[in-house]
């Protein structure tokens, strides 16, 4: 602005004597009526000054001006770009009182601001009369300056006028700096003569040819942010230009700009580097805005011969530390900038001259020695991602509700991020240029490798380095440098000997760029690629490739038939083709579901029923059942069957026969499918002679044989029987099974009216040794069904030593009659999971889409929950339109069912990998929460039938599971720190509803009091008041129940401490803890039966008790008992642990328990027939038991010696002697184990078990207080 005033003064356009630049914002124009000018700057991207901001600036400027005490001066406030909503500020010399009308928004705003600042009405009027406000853009001011100077210095070329205007800015800045510390009376000024002299001196001294040469030759151009480029497609991906920065489109990167400024100061040369499209150019053009005092030139080309002209230009501008010049070079190191290293050396040697350049990773090597440069890596960060998204959304260039999911999937790549939001063309154009350069430079190995890697990666596969080298026709050593270059350029990744793409979108762009202008064709590349893929990769590659390019099916068909393919490769091709066949079927099923009116939320369960063939339960809507019937009847493509037919049964029989890997053979048989009788016949014929497979069957484990037989049985039972015979027949298999599980005491096949039955009995004497009883019999039952294909079901039971059933009370453990139709092989289960993942690829929606769709529904749900909660609590519907409310609930239910399942992978990917959970897409948490409320809780609140069941469902399902899962959704993708307020509101209301319903479940007569509390205020607070009353009531009821139970103790002469659950935790089975203070554990052993009987007599329906003795103020956890219908060991204190004092430490008891358990195991083994005891597994169990017994005895030996420890030691010694008698055959084998297990399961006591129980009490008393322990026992 000072330079413009100077130009006006020189040209005679400003009637003044002199200018006095005084600082950053102040200029004084001295004349007969002097003027004080204050300048307010504003960035281009911020637009016009808001009215309120401008008013504050004007009032503040007036107050500051008034403090100067120069009453003869008027005030002019200049606003860069002007003020919003005000057009009357275009004249430099007209006061506000004359330029603004009485009803001008700016005038009213100034008056209001002045009033707030304490100015009186007369002072405000003085401000308006003595102040001029002028609005102009820098572009307009610069243009006017050049025009005025051109009229004065007519011989100057237009380009030189720019430099003269800059010289005036430097002169004004110089005087302002000198005046900053100087009193006004000693200030320096610029009159017209001085300004003209300085201009003339500049013209005489400056080499005008040098000023223009570099520019006219096209080497450089002055950088200007004065011409904004408002490009509507900027965020869809275009090459960033300075005008984009001027238009405010470029995201400020303050941290990186700060690094660049620091780098300039330290090294004079800064390089911004990163992969293509990451935002290097945007940062380059943004740096000049942070250094406005620098003269910036954009270097357009730079050969070594161009460097002298550029230096001549800089010297003509008198470059120095006080007059810095910056050179901006975009894409340094490429063909147009081969002189970069020469220029860098000159820059380093020239004070005040510096350069900022951009360079891709792969171009850095061409720049030479970078030791004297500052290198700054540029990547996409969250702030930039959010700003890009906001820019796209403001221009309606994206349909995505939020940016974070795309950002997380982009991996720091700006091109991929923008592409995911817009599907723009920038990614393609950048990658195409990278490929074009390699073609031009004949970098054929890189192109070959990229064609293979990108094609594999775009369809979910990766390539081993050794196979990639072979496919490219080079050695692994020769491939090392191309891999390094491509990795540097972010075109591929090599990790642990495997090559993959950087990002699927980038790989797609690379593959398209290579194959859009063949050679090579896509088909040619795939033919080269397939032999390079591991079989597991082929399985993933085929369905994803066919999804995008279905016309490739013949190529894959032919590749599958390649004679070089063995069993492993054939399996992979068949599975890949079957997966795509099912993908097409899933698409068809989706159409069927839509036609049948199945909402998206129910489609996954419908497809699950269709996949598994399970019957649809009656409680599902009719349309689901009809859709499933249509789905199962719909035809399926048969690409896999076509390959099987084309290859022929003999080919597969030979492939099977020649493999010696049973897992491979089993997987290939599974892919051949059901009903392939021709293959079964051919296999039986081929297997009539020795083969690697049959030899492998004979040496295989029983589990491997079982998998092979059950898979063969699904093709043809006679084929399965062939494998049984090959393994030596049923007798040989039984021997293998006994060897696999030496605890089996009986094993045979028996006939029954329902067909042959696999009958087995197995010894069980320790859960620690054998595992969970139920899991054990199920595993054995499955093994038997799979090994013996002619059986229809099994009869498997566990038996305890002594021949007793494993039974606790009346409950039978360890027994199964598993039928064949309910046994599904691991391959069947895996196939079902893979198909569910394919279903997910068809039905799934991204998290951002799901959450954005659910958000308004959750708002509505929160509102309806509050309305219904208040209405329910007050039993008053007068404040609501019930018909409208029912319509709202129904509408919400319908909308919630439109939310599909969560996509378990990236878009465009048929993902068949993952754990068991990743395949589960049955219930979407968001849809599930809303529909559980609309279809279950809301209707049941109107009738309140069975409030206990409602409370249990609310507590255990809706709040604990559905709501919690909804809250755990990735809400950060929509910008939430935790989860939306609507979910917090729903949670609060549901807890309040639960409190009321739970109180009614406990006492229906409480209804009147709860309604009265609800109506004791405004309707909006009805639920809250009722819930508070319900909680008070529940606390009173719990206290009353606690008192009752404590009274039971008093009646027994015992002191009970009763703990109840928290009042916000509803339990259908109400749990109570009864802690009993005892003076000794002997008293506890005598009192326990009496205590349990009394508590059981006083118990209410649905109560469960944990009873634990308290000694010396601490619980004795090992003696805790559980009481429902019978008294059983509790195992631990569970949820009550934190409510009690820390339990006693019991090292002696723990050692005794471990010793008894070891003796039980060693004795239990002796219940086996003697021939079985030499088995390796049995021998190891015995060895471990004896080792643990010795360790426990050592702990006992290390304990303080007294009567109790001596007694315990004697007991263990006597038990060990009894074990030796069992081993010697002098007593029944397994007798010790039998007695101990009968005590634990049936409560049967013997002299041995009583002795063990007493010893355990001794050990516990000793652990609690060894000083007094002996007095409780009569010890000889």
UniProtKB/TrEMBL annotation:
InterPro entries (UniProt xref): P-loop_NTPase (IPR027417)
GO MF assignments: ATP binding
Keywords assigned: ATP-binding, Nucleotide-binding
Keyword hit for ATP-binding: yes
Protein name (record): ATP-binding protein
Lineage start: Bacteria, Bacillati, Actinomycetota, Actinomycetes, Micrococcales
């Amino acid at each position: 602005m000072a330079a413009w005033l100077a130009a006006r003064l020189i040209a005679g356009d400003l009637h003044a004597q002199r200018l006095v630049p005084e600082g950053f914002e102040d200029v004084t124009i001295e004349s007969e009526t002097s003027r004080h000018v204050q300048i307010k700057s504003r960035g281009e991207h911020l637009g016009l000054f808001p009215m309120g901001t401008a008013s504050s600036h004007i009032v503040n400027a007036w107050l500051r001006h008034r403090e100067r005490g120069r009453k003869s001066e008027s005030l002019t406030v200049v606003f860069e770009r002007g003020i919003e909503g005000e057009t009357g500020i275009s004249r430099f010399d007209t006061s506000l009182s004359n330029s603004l009308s009485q009803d001008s928004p700016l005038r009213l705003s100034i008056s209001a601001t002045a009033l707030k600042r304490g100015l009186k009405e007369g002072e405000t009027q003085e401000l308006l009369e003595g102040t001029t406000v002028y609005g102009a853009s820098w572009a307009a001011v610069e243009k006017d300056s050049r025009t005025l100077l051109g009229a004065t210095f007519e011989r100057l070329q237009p380009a030189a006028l720019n430099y003269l205007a800059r010289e005036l800015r430097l002169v004004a800045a110089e005087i302002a700096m000198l005046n900053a510390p100087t009193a006004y009376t000693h200030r320096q000024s610029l009159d017209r003569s001085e300004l003209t002299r300085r201009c003339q001196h500049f013209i005489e001294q400056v080499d005008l040819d040098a000023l223009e040469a570099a520019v006219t030759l096209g080497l450089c151009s002055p950088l200007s942010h004065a011409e904004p480029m408002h490009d509507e497609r900027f965020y869809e991906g275009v090459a960033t230009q300075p005008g984009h920065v001027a238009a405010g489109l470029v995201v400020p990167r303050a941290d990186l700009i700060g690094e660049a400024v620091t780098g300039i100061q330290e090294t004079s040369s800064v390089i911004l580097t990163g992969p293509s499209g990451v935002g290097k150019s945007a940062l380059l053009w943004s740096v000049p805005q942070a250094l406005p005092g620098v003269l910036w030139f954009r270097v357009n080309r730079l050969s070594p011969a161009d460097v002298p002209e550029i230096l001549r230009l800089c010297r003509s501008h008198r470059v120095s530390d006080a007059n810095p010049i910056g050179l901006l070079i975009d894409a340094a190191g490429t063909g147009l900038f081969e002189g970069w290293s020469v220029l860098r050396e000159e820059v380093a040697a020239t004070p005040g001259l510096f350069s900022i350049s951009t360079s891709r990773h792969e171009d850095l090597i061409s720049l030479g020695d970078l030791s004297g440069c500052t290198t700054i890596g540029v990547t996409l960060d969250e702030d930039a991602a959010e700003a890009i998204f906001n820019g796209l959304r403001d221009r309606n260039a994206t349909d995505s509700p939020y940016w974070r999911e795309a950002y997380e999937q982009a991996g720091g790549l700006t091109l991929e991020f923008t592409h995911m939001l817009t599907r723009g063309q920038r990614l393609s154009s950048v990658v195409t240029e990278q490929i074009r350069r390699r073609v031009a430079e004949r970098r054929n190995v890189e192109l070959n490798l990229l064609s293979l890697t990108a094609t594999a990666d775009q369809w979910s596969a990766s390539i081993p380095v050794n196979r990639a080298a072979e496919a490219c026709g080079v050695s692994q050593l020769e491939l090392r440098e191309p891999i390094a270059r491509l990795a540097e350029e972010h075109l591929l990744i090599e990790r642990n000997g495997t090559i993959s793409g950087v990002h699927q979108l980038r790989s797609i762009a690379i593959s398209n760029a290579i194959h859009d202008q063949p050679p090579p064709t896509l088909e040619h590349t795939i033919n080269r690629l397939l032999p390079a893929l591991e079989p597991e990769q082929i399985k993933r590659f085929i369905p994803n490739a066919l999804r995008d390019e279905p016309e490739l099916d013949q190529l894959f068909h032919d590749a599958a038939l390649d004679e070089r393919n063995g069993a492993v490769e054939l399996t992979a091709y068949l599975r890949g083709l079957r997966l795509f066949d099912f993908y097409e079927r899933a698409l068809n099923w989706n159409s069927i579901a839509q036609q049948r009116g199945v909402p998206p939320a129910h489609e996954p369960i419908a497809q699950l029923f269709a996949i598994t063939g399970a019957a649809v339960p009656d409680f599902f809507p009719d349309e689901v059942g009809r859709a499933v019937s249509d789905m199962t009847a719909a035809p399926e493509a048969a690409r896999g069957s076509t390959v099987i037919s084309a290859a022929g049964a003999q080919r597969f029989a030979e492939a099977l026969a020649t493999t010696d890997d049973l897992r491979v053979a089993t997987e290939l048989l599974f892919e051949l499918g059901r009903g392939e009788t021709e293959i079964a016949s051919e296999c039986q014929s081929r297997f009539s002679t020795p083969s690697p497979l049959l030899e492998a069957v004979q040496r295989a484990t029983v589990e491997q044989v079982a998998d092979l037989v059950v898979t063969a049985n699904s093709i043809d039972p006679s084929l399965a029987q062939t494998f049984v015979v090959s393994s030596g027949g049923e007798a040989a298999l039984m021997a293998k099974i006994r060897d696999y599980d030496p605890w089996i005491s009986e094993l045979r096949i028996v006939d029954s009216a329902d067909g042959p039955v696999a009958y087995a009995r197995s010894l069980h004497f320790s859960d620690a040794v054998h595992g969970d009883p139920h899991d054990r019999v199920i595993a054995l039952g499955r093994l038997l069904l799979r090994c013996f294909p002619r059986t229809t079901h099994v009869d498997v039971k566990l038996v305890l030593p002594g021949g007793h059933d494993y039974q606790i009370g009346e409950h039978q453990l360890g027994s199964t009659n598993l039928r064949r139709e309910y046994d599904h092989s691991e391959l069947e289960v895996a196939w079902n999971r893979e198909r569910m993942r394919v279903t997910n690829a068809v039905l799934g929606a991204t998290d951002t889409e799901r959450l954005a769709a659910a958000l308004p529904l959750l708002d509505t749900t929160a509102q309806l929950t509050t309305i219904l909660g208040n209405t329910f609590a007050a039993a008053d519907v007068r404040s609501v339109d019930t018909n409208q409310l029912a319509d709202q609930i129904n509408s919400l239910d319908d909308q919630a069912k439109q939310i599909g399942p969560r996509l378990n992978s990236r878009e465009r990917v048929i993902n068949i990998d993952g754990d068991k959970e990743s395949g589960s897409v049955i219930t979407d948490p968001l849809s599930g929460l809303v529909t559980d409320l609309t279809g279950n809780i809301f209707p049941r609140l109107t009738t309140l039938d069975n409030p206990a069941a409602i409370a249990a469902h609310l507590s255990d399902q809706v709040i604990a599971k559905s709501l919690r899962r909804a809250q755990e959704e990735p809400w950060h993708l929509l910008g939430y720190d935790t989860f939306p307020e609507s979910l917090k509101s729903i949670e609060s209301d549901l807890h309040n509803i639960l409190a009321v319903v739970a109180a009614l479940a406990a006492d229906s007569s409480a209804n009147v009091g709860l309604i009265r509390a609800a109506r004791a205020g405004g309707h909006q607070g009805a639920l809250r008041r009722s819930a508070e009353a319900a909680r008070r009531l529940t606390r009173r009821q719990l206290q009353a129940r606690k008192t009752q139970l404590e009274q039971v103790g008093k009646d027994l002469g015992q002191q009970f401490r009763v703990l109840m659950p928290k009042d916000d935790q509803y339990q259908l089975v109400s749990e109570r803890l009864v802690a009993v203070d005892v003076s000794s554990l002997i008293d506890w052993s005598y009192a326990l039966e009496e205590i349990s009987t009394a508590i059981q007599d006083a118990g209410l329906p649905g109560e469960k008790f944990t009873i634990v003795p308290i000694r010396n103020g601490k619980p004795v956890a090992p003696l805790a008992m559980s009481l429902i219908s019978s008294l059983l060991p509790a195992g631990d204190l569970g949820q009550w642990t934190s409510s009690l004092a820390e339990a006693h430490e019991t090292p002696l008891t723990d050692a005794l328990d471990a010793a008894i358990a070891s003796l039980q195991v060693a004795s239990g083994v002796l219940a086996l027939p003697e021939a079985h005891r030499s088995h390796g597994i049995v021998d190891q169990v015995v060895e471990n038991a004896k080792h643990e017994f010795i360790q426990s005895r050592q702990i006992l030996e290390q304990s303080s010696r007294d009567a109790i420890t001596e007694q315990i030691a004697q007991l263990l010694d006597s038990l060990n002697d009894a074990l030796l008698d069992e081993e010697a055959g002098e007593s029944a084998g397994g007798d010790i184990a039998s007695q101990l297990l009968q005590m634990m399961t049936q409560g049967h006591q013997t002299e041995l078990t009583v002795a063990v129980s007493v010893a355990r009490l001794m050990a516990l008393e000793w652990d609690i207080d060894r000083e007094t322990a002996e007095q409780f026992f009569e010890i000889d």
